[in-house]
Amino acid sequence: MRGFWVTVKMGLRMYLRDRGAVFWGIVFPLILMTLIGLAFGRSDSPSFTIAVVDQSGGLLGRGLLEGLRQVPVFRVEEAGDTEAALVRLREGRLTLVIVVPGAPSGEPIRAYFDQARVTDSQTALVILERFIADANLRLARAPQTLRLQATGIAGRIQLRFFDFLLPGILAMTVMQTGLSGVTWVVATYRQRLILKRILATPAHPAAFLGGLVGRYTLTSLFQMAVIMLVAVLAFHARIVGSLATLGALIVLGTLVFVGMGFAISTVSKSPEAANLLGTAISYPMMFLAGTFWPKDFMPKAMQPVIGLLPLTPLVDVMRGVSARGDAVTAYLPGLAYLAAWGAVSFLVAAKRFRWE
Amino acid sequence: MPIVEVVDLFKRYGDVPAVDHIGFVVESGEVFGILGPNGAGKTTTLEIIEGLRRPDGGRAVVDGVDVQQHPREVRSRIGMQLQQAGFFERLTVDETLQLFAAFHRRALPGSDVIHRLQLDEKRRARVDTLSGGQLQRLSVAVALINDPRIVFLDEPTTGLDPQARRALWEVIGSFRREGRTVILTTHYMEEAQHLCDRVAIMDHGRIVAQDTPRGLIRTHAPGTTVTVLVDGGQVRFDALPGVQTVQQANGEVILLTSDPLGTVHALMELNRSGEAIFHQLRVEEATLEDVFLQLTGRRLRE
């Protein structure tokens, strides 16, 4: 394998001097993780701000206010004017506006919510409905025949958002390295006749291409280490499974997606076209494969497609191992499917590879 | 002793023959030039001999090894300077030579090669900061790194300024003094005339003549050329004293003559009598340019 190690060594030097590669491999995933974490990560302990407009000025309003203040997830404000409160609701600063009608007239208590924010509104409404039902029962002095006591327990694994997000980000980074990085690099080497220069030496071409694969494997492991470190130190993400297993999965993922990158670079005429094609494949995959949020969030009709994406099994197994400490053996079919993608990619690349 | 033998080589791209049944022999230790205009098939010929392209017919034997059967063996014995090929732009000159040294079975110390090509000041400079001339020298350095017996140079001085070209000629001259065989392509006739022991003139995929530069001139353009720019008038140039051939290109008339003095006298006479008006008159020893003109009716660079 004359030429393998020197390709790895010089490849690593080139990587460290390439700000673009370091940005896409480390900085970009960290930015994504931060943004997505900020957007979704706080749903662990929801709290809803609600405004009560008391038009009764009497006992009913007072009682309701007191009662609502006891509900732990509600932050209750008193509002004087319904219109002003509704404006704040539209602006997203309130979850509910509750209007208590004046003088007993049989008019209902009105609750306004923002239809655009379904999840928060529905949750708050359910809590409110239960609260009203309770109050009704108490007013009717009905005997409490059935009682429910809900007790929260800490599960063996408390999956918090960053624990969930980190393995997805790692899998995405591996995919990006292959589909955006390798496609660009190999197509550029070809266009600038650098590959031809390599071919002009007596070394076996496989030594050089293998050296490229080696280079990307090592940079992927390095990127994984940095991203993990930041996730653990800055976002308190927890990694339950073994780091060695995760490393092995990163290596497997890198091999597969580097293979796909090679294959894509062989069907494109220019580096720009190769990069565009790689990006066109990787971006939808990034959003569909359960990288940032559970796959179930996607429509049912999409599920069969999601199951076929090569990124999906990598995200699944990495998340299982990292966040839940699952054994890799539980994911063998997915891993086999992923490996098959890799094998096919390398076959296509080997068959179609052009040096110039 | 022949070190490179090319026999009836043929290669076509689509229906167009790029290399049209050519053959030549290069002796060990000589500098052999393939001279021709762009698109003549020089690079294709070189790349077939280097084992980078498969011919559609014929064969090439380098240092006793058949190129088609053992391309990798051939590549380990030769050094190649490729036309227009790039480098890893984020590596330094030093690292680039280290990289290519590691692809070969044996290699000269990088520092020696760097010194010979006067790249010492740029050793630690990244390749993407080098000038065109420096890149060209690095390209030759890569061709030399495995200490080859045969060096192939594909248009080594194209795009260089005259000073850089002279410097590279020096290096190529030193290859010959070390007993290396050099095969180069060029479309500069001065380069072929200055550097080469023997020259093959190539046009449209064919070798139209091959010999020493002197021999080519003696055979195809003996004597002297008289060049004039004609401005009106009908003149039978071939009737002038000593004139052997008449070529016209770009408004110029180029007369190959065995009696330069007689020819010039006759031209001056015509000019004085007003039978024809000439601007500029040059009298030169014939060059390979004239040989090419005689053989193809065209100039090397048009």
UniProtKB/TrEMBL annotation, chain A:
<dbReference type="InterPro" id="IPR047817">
    <property type="entry name" value="ABC2_TM_bact-type"/>
</dbReference>
<dbReference type="GO" id="GO:0016020">
    <property type="term" value="C:membrane"/>
</dbReference>
<dbReference type="InterPro" id="IPR052902">
    <property type="entry name" value="ABC-2_transporter"/>
</dbReference>
<protein>
    <submittedName>
        <fullName>ABC transporter permease</fullName>
    </submittedName>
</protein>
<keyword id="KW-0812">Transmembrane</keyword>
<feature type="transmembrane region" description="Helical">
    <location>
        <begin position="330"/>
        <end position="350"/>
    </location>
</feature>
<dbReference type="GO" id="GO:0140359">
    <property type="term" value="F:ABC-type transporter activity"/>
</dbReference>
<feature type="transmembrane region" description="Helical">
    <location>
        <begin position="21"/>
        <end position="40"/>
    </location>
</feature>
<feature type="transmembrane region" description="Helical">
    <location>
        <begin position="216"/>
        <end position="237"/>
    </location>
</feature>
<feature type="transmembrane region" description="Helical">
    <location>
        <begin position="243"/>
        <end position="264"/>
    </location>
</feature>
<dbReference type="Pfam" id="PF12698">
    <property type="entry name" value="ABC2_membrane_3"/>
</dbReference>
<feature type="domain" description="ABC transmembrane type-2">
    <location>
        <begin position="125"/>
        <end position="356"/>
    </location>
</feature>
<keyword id="KW-1133">Transmembrane helix</keyword>
<keyword id="KW-0472">Membrane</keyword>
<dbReference type="InterPro" id="IPR013525">
    <property type="entry name" value="ABC2_TM"/>
</dbReference>
<feature type="transmembrane region" description="Helical">
    <location>
        <begin position="276"/>
        <end position="293"/>
    </location>
</feature>
<feature type="transmembrane region" description="Helical">
    <location>
        <begin position="164"/>
        <end position="187"/>
    </location>
</feature>
From TrEMBL, chain B:
<keyword id="KW-1278">Translocase</keyword>
<dbReference type="InterPro" id="IPR017871">
    <property type="entry name" value="ABC_transporter-like_CS"/>
</dbReference>
<dbReference type="InterPro" id="IPR050763">
    <property type="entry name" value="ABC_transporter_ATP-binding"/>
</dbReference>
<dbReference type="GO" id="GO:0005886">
    <property type="term" value="C:plasma membrane"/>
</dbReference>
<keyword id="KW-0472">Membrane</keyword>
<dbReference type="GO" id="GO:0016887">
    <property type="term" value="F:ATP hydrolysis activity"/>
</dbReference>
<keyword id="KW-0813">Transport</keyword>
<keyword id="KW-1003">Cell membrane</keyword>
<dbReference type="InterPro" id="IPR027417">
    <property type="entry name" value="P-loop_NTPase"/>
</dbReference>
<keyword id="KW-0547">Nucleotide-binding</keyword>
<dbReference type="InterPro" id="IPR003439">
    <property type="entry name" value="ABC_transporter-like_ATP-bd"/>
</dbReference>
<feature type="domain" description="ABC transporter">
    <location>
        <begin position="4"/>
        <end position="229"/>
    </location>
</feature>
<dbReference type="InterPro" id="IPR003593">
    <property type="entry name" value="AAA+_ATPase"/>
</dbReference>
<dbReference type="GO" id="GO:0005524">
    <property type="term" value="F:ATP binding"/>
</dbReference>
<keyword id="KW-0067">ATP-binding</keyword>
<protein>
    <submittedName>
        <fullName>ABC transporter ATP-binding protein</fullName>
    </submittedName>
</protein>
<dbReference type="Pfam" id="PF00005">
    <property type="entry name" value="ABC_tran"/>
</dbReference>
